[in-house]
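Reviewers of the previous submission asked for a worked example of the structure-prediction workflow described in the proposal, so we include one complete record here. The input consisted solely of the amino acid sequence. No template or homolog information was supplied to the procedure at any stage.
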Amino acid sequence: MLNFVDNWLRPLQLTVAQVEAELDLPDGQYILTVADSETAATRWEILAAMVESGQAMLLRESAQEWGAGSVIYCSVNSAILAQIFLGQEALDSRVTNLEGAGLQQVYAAPTGSDVTLDPAMPYWATAPGAGLVTFSAPADMPGSKRLENTVEATLSAGGRVRIAGNGRDIIEALIQPHADISASLGPSNAYLELTASATARVRLTIAVRAGEYAGGVIRLQLAVDIVDLASYAQLS
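From that input alone, the workflow returned the following structure tokens.
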């Protein structure tokens, strides 16, 4: 879940290549703004930050150099509004699905397979054990479009579910925390990988949103909700 802290602003210097920084924020995910001045800014950069124990991993789409006098702050910006709209779209989609609920086909994703997420095939089941299964965004997914698929996954320790951009960069990935599942981005943000540290039975709701950037480049935003099915009470 995206975090927000009112009235938070700190001085900060960053090189173009820097992807780590010390930020005195509570642990969590943030979308922050960097500016070249606190009172008379002339340029800005919006970045995502994953903060843990005061150390932040930065996801920077359009990195710039930030020297003395620069600041970083938490405020409403276009990226935060996009996340709000993405969440609203997800809610609208779920309400629509509930209102028109019918029987759904469950599609199998075998261990080692690479299947394409598809609005016409919205429900998957997989049991890769300690292996890997990959779900890829459609290669031809246009900008300003969104899809959502659900995956029921049974994983052993070391089992992985990979969500791949299929040639598109993943510029943002929001993951619901789970005690037995860690999340990491692959090289060049080509994919998001969920890895189980213990046996887990979960339901993943994978939302993919495509955005078109300068030059017609398509980049992706991911949001993954995790429901722990193993924690449910089983009646017999």
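The helical segments are 78-99. We consider this example representative of the routine output the project will generate in years two and three.
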